[in-house]
Structures are given as structure tokens and as C-alpha cells.
Design goal:
- This protein is of the alpha+beta class.
- It has a single domain, classed as endopeptidase fold (from Nostoc punctiforme) (Alpha-Beta Complex), CATH 3.90.1720.10.
- It has 5 helices and 7 strands.
- Strands 1, 2, 3, 4, 5, 6 and 7 form a 7-stranded antiparallel sheet that branches.
- A hairpin with a 2-residue loop joins strand 2 and strand 3.
- Helix 3 crosses helix 4 and helix 4 runs parallel beside helix 5.
- It starts with a helix and ends in a 6-residue tail after the last strand.
- The model has no long low-confidence stretch (mean pLDDT about 90).
Length: about 150
């Protein structure tokens, strides 16, 4: 909640192709992550283990999210065509989803690194991978209509 209040005072950004996105699921105690592929479309691993393309509204559904956060360097969003391409290539595939051991964060980190069998199962690990691959150093609010 505090992060949402703080972000409402910051400049908004538009995601770049291949930006990492995340939102809150349980009032900041859990997050959901995915990859922006353009045209208001996000590739995510859903709870059924299917990698799908969704709208921002669907991306935040099922949680407490009020905002979607975008990988940024300073005040600009950052992404990568290679990251977006990896996400797109995975569309329609199914993984053995597990809340802790094979989740959306592992998928997102795989899009960043190309290694989908990684052990990056928490958002802080995705943020570190995003820093290493994209040079992100902060996360800003995407001013997108979630209604």
C-alpha cells in the first residue's frame, strides 16, 4: 500500500517492448509478474500453468492490485526485443505450475535470461535479473486503465 501511495506522486511511464511488469496480489505480500509485448498485451504464466497473452485488466485480476509497475532505469522504462521474443515463443505452452517452485516469477526470469528452468521464484530475484539484463534500477507506475 505504501508503495502505491508513493508511486502516485511519481511520473508515470509507458512500458517498452520486453519490459518486466508486476502487480500486487495480496496487499504487497505477494506479487504477479509478466512481460510486456506491445499493444497493451502482457505474457504471463497463469495459475493453471498455461502461458497466455492477457490485457492489463486480466493481468491484475484475482488480486489486490491497483497499479502495474514497469522496469525502469532512472525515469525511463526499459525493455528488450529479445525478452519480448522469448515470451512470445512460449505462448500456449504449459508448465507444471506450483505456487512456490514453478511460478510466474520463474517464467518472467526465464524470459529475461533464456533459462526457463531457473530457480528465480520470488519477485526480488526477478528484480535482480531485470537489473542485470535490462539495467533497471527502479519500478514506476504504468498509467493504464484497469477498469
Amino acid at each position: 500500500m505504501a508503495e502505491s501511495l508513493y508511486d502516485s506522486c511519481r511520473d508515470y511511464v509507458e512500458p517498452e517492448l520486453g519490459s518486466v511488469l508486476y502487480c500486487d496480489l495480496a496487499f504487497g505480500y505477494m506479487e504477479h509478474s509478466g512481460i510486456y509485448i506491445g499493444n497493451n498485451e502482457i505474457v504471463q504464466l497463469n495459475r493453471s500453468g498455461v502461458i497466455e497473452c492477457v490485457s492489463p485488466k486480466k493481468f491484475v485480476s484475482g488480486g489486490s492490485a491497483c497499479n502495474i509497475y514497469v522496469s525502469c532505469n532512472s525515469t525511463e522504462s526499459v525493455g528488450s526485443r529479445a525478452v519480448a521474443g522469448r515470451a512470445i515463443k512460449m505462448l500456449g505452452k504449459k508448465r507444471g505450475y506450483n505456487f512456490i517452485f514453478d511460478n510466474c516469477h520463474q517464467f518472467t526470469a526465464g524470459c529475461l535470461s533464456g533459462d526457463f528452468d531457473n530457480s528465480k521464484n520470488f519477485m526480488w530475484m526477478v528484480k535482480q535479473e531485470s537489473e542485470d539484463v535490462l539495467g533497471s534500477d527502479n519500478w514506476r507506475y504504468w498509467d493504464v486503465d484497469l477498469m
